[in-house]
Design goal:
Elements (H helix, E strand, L loop, with lengths): L7 E2 L7 E2 L2 E6 L2 E9 L5 E2 L5 H4 L4 H10 L27 H4 L1
Antiparallel strand pairs: 1-2, 3-4, 4-5
Length: about 100
């Protein structure tokens, strides 16, 4: 029995059991993160569902949710386009996402 219900098991990872956390990092500093809830109908916690409605997968929606954040007061993007290099693996990448 797991110590916490949020512990996930991904059998082919070097450390198969643990917490899954989506993290946005810049030069070693954590800028934002999103917890992953275990279960078929769960996944990234507090994910902006509008990206799913546009046809993106949950993993692609995480990328968009974290990178397209806006300042609550000014409504300006926190991470302006054209000023960052984004590294993704094949779990996230699609032509639609890159467009």
């Amino acid at each position: 029995m797991d110590c916490a219900p949020e512990i996930v098991n991904i059998p082919f990872k070097p450390t198969p059991e643990g917490f899954k956390i989506w993290i946005l990092v810049n030069e070693g500093y954590i800028l934002d993160f999103m917890w992953h809830a275990k279960g078929d109908k769960k996944g990234p916690v507090d994910l902006d569902k509008s990206f799913l409605d546009e046809g993106f997968s949950k993993t692609q929606a995480v990328v968009l949710d974290l990178l397209l954040q806006k300042d609550a007061k000014t409504d300006e993007r926190l991470y302006p386009p054209g000023q960052h290099v984004v590294w993704l693996d094949n779990l996230f990448t699609s032509v639609k996402l890159l467009t």
